[in-house]
Structure formats: structure tokens, C-alpha cells
Amino acid sequence: MPVARFLLILLLGIYSQWALAILPIQHWQTPSGARVYFVESRSLPILDINVDFSAGSSADTPAKSGCASLTLHLLDLGAGGLSEDKISKALADVGAQLSARFDRDRAGISLRTLSSKRERDQALDILSRVIQHPEFPENIMLRERARVIARLKEAETKPGYIADRILMKMLYGNHPYGLRSSGEVAALKTLRRRDLVDFYQSHYVATNAVVSIMGDVSRTEAAAIAEALSKDLPQGKAVDNLPPVVKPVAGTKRITHPASQSHILLAYPGLQRDDPDYYPLVVGNYILGGGGFASRLMEEIRQKRGLAYSVRSSFLPLKQAGPFQIGLQTKKEQAEEALMITQKVLADFIAGGPTEKELTAARGNIVGGFPLRIDSNKKILRYLAMIGFYNLPLTYLEDYVSAVDKVTVEQIREAFQRRIHPEGMVTVVVGAAEEK
After folding, report:
1. Which residue from 57, 223, 269, 337 could staple onto 181, CB 3.0 to 4.6 Å apart?
2. Bridge-based pairing state of the strands 209-215 and 46-53
3. Cα 361 to Cα 294: distance, rounded to the nearest angstrom
4. What is the CATH number of the domain that holds 337?
């Protein structure tokens, strides 16, 4: 029996209640068209619910950038006849928690509540009002818009923020993924309440909703909850016109900044969520720069040369190709050396792939850490929402470890050579050393 598989069996035994909880994912569609993903778990008197829409920042346009984020932000600041204060007090009264998630693809609202009838009913009533009957009060909209603009102006002075913003623009150009998630100041100033209402009506439609339910309710109760949360959503066809990502124009931008360190970022279009190269690239990235002190980048940049405290590479899978990114900070006078070494480590890894020893260690670490990813209802709910939104197989969690365990050195080398081209990467150095 392979070591990785033995570790998996051992650890899943330790976390058996969670392992068993994730297996029976139930899936159906409500009469209104929302897709539902449900796992029943009676171990705790808690109910977790997530409602996602394809309404992330990529749904914006350059002229209305920031509209998607502001729309989500205002959902619970006045809805269904309740003010923001009344919504907050009603949730606090039953100990419920409401939170939001926002990225390039998704906009979502999550609820955690006790499963007892009074607490659950009151919390669900609030969630139903928030996602189905938002009011977007004019005075609240103007207040929050001003706050966002103030935060953006402050962020625009920070080197890490500047680097990330420039990198994404270089990487994606005019593609919607290149839009700043919080919006541009100039565009935000032109947003009106009507823009938020129109965005909500066109993107928060029932057929665009993914409802994920995890916790102490039956299938019958879950079906009633999902229908109650979606029946009054706007009707219509979900908007989904996201174009494919094209290769960027390679180049390096060096930006002067008074910060004491240089912020260095490199990127290239990486993974789609359902990508056939997903597992070789994810496992390979763990070896390259995603595995902390076990990674090659950390060994070469920090351990051997002391050029940075930390260096990391990552893939962010999205509907279209999300970014493959490498990032580090270093002293200004070391920036060019650190960049050169980073580029060399990447090029060498792509050319030769990992060693069998590196792969064995990576598989063991990934498999060994997997139970910790699913050791709570909240964590399982996040996977449920991801499976639902990206239409992944219901067996995704069961398949993950065996897929990792099957990855070979050759598959990693071929996947990186096929997908990541160092000569085509975009690079940003903010806080570059001034030329003498």
C-alpha cells in the first residue's frame, strides 16, 4: 500500500465524522430554477447556508467598475422593510452570523445559525429578505460609496496594492478579470442607486443562484429552505458572457516607491476550475512554491541566499484561466538579484520537473493535510459552494486524494511545459531601486 494512501486512511479514521459527512452530497433544482447542494449533518445543532451568484467583479464593465462589489455590500444594509440596524439586531437576537464573499467570479451571502426552530426561522427570514428584497437606500448607497472611495485612495499609496493592481492589468488587459474588484475611483463617483438596482435585477436571478446547505436539517426541510430563499428572486436568464483569457503581452514594469522593500510579482494565465491539468499543476506548484519551507523557491530564495523572508507561488482557478502568480518582498538593493533567481528556479522547474523524492513528499503532505480542510461544517460548506458554482462532480472531495496520489513526475513536467511559459510572463517591481 502506498505511504500516501496509508496516511489518508489513518487520518480519515481520525476525522471520520467529517469524512462521512462529506460523502452523501444531495443535489436538486428548485421550481424557481436555483441549484441546491445539501449535506445533512446532525452532529451539531447548527445550520450553515451559502447563496452564490455569478456576480463577481468580472460582471462589471469599465464604465461601471465597482458596481458588483457595492451591490453585494448593500444587500444587508436595508431589505424587506427592515433598516440595517434592525437587520443587525435581529441577527444578534438569535446569535446568527451573516457574511459576504466576493471575487472575480462569485458574489455570495453566507448564514450561520442555530438549527432550533425560533433561531433558525428568524435567521432565515433575514437572509430571505436580504437576498430577495434588498432596498438599496439612497442615503446608505452614497455613504458606502464614499467609504469605498476613501479606502481606495488610501490603498493606492501602498506598494503591495499598487503591484497587484498593475499586475492584473498587465495580465488580463481588457478582459473582465483585469477590472479592479472594488472599482475605479472615477467610475465609482458616477454610480447611482439605479445602477445597483439594475445590476441586482440582471445578475441575482433565480436561475443564477447556487444554494449550499450544510447542517442539522432533513432533506425535506432543506428543500423548503432553498425554495423560500429563491422563489422571489428576479426572473430571467442568467448573464454569463465571460470571454476566454488570451496570452498577455510579456514585460516588466518597475515602479519607484518610498517603501523600504521592493514588492515583486510575476504572473501568467493559469487554471480554469475544471481544467484537465488541474491536479498535475496543483501538486507541481506545491513543490515549486506552494509548500512553504518544503518548496524550491523558499529553499533557493530564503534558505540559501537570504533574499526574502517568504516567497510563494500559487494558482487561482476560476471560470476562465485564473492567475498563476509568484510573489516576494526583498530589500531594494537585492530586488534584481531576487527576481533573476526566481525566474531561474521557475525555468529550471518547468524544464526538468520535480524529482521523485519531491513528489513523494508533496503527495504525503497534501494527502496528510486534507482532513484538516474538511474538519468543520463551515469548511465543508465552502467546498459545497465551489462544487455547485463550478458544476464539479459530486464526488469531488472523494476523488481529490486519489487524484493527487496518481500524479506522476512526467505529468507535472508536461503540464507546466504546456501551460506556463516563463518568457511570456508579466512582472511588476514596486519599490524598484533608483538608477544611479
Report:
1. 57
2. antiparallel
3. 9
4. 3.30.830.10
Of 168, 359, 303, nearest in space to 245 by CA? 168
CB 309 within 8 A of CB 249: no
Q: What is the mean pLDDT of residues 369-394?
A: 92
CA distance 271 to 1: 31
Q: Is the pLDDT of residue 4 over 50?
A: no
Mean pLDDT along residues 146-157: 96
Instruction: Label the pairing between strands 426-430 and 261-269.
Output: antiparallel
pLDDT value for 344: 98
45-85 tens-digit pLDDT: 999 999 999 999 999 999 999 999 999 999 999 999 999 99
Please say whether the beta carbons of 119 and 149 come within 8 A.
no
Instruction: Report the distance separating Cα 315 and Cα 327, nearest Å.
Output: 12
What confidence tens digit (pLDDT) does each residue in 319-351 have? 999 999 999 999 999 999 999 999 999 999 999
Q: Is residue 301 part of a domain?
A: yes
State the Cα–Cα distance between residues 317 and 278, nearest whole angstrom: 9
Same domain, 139 and 271: no
Residues 179 and 122 both lie in one domain: yes
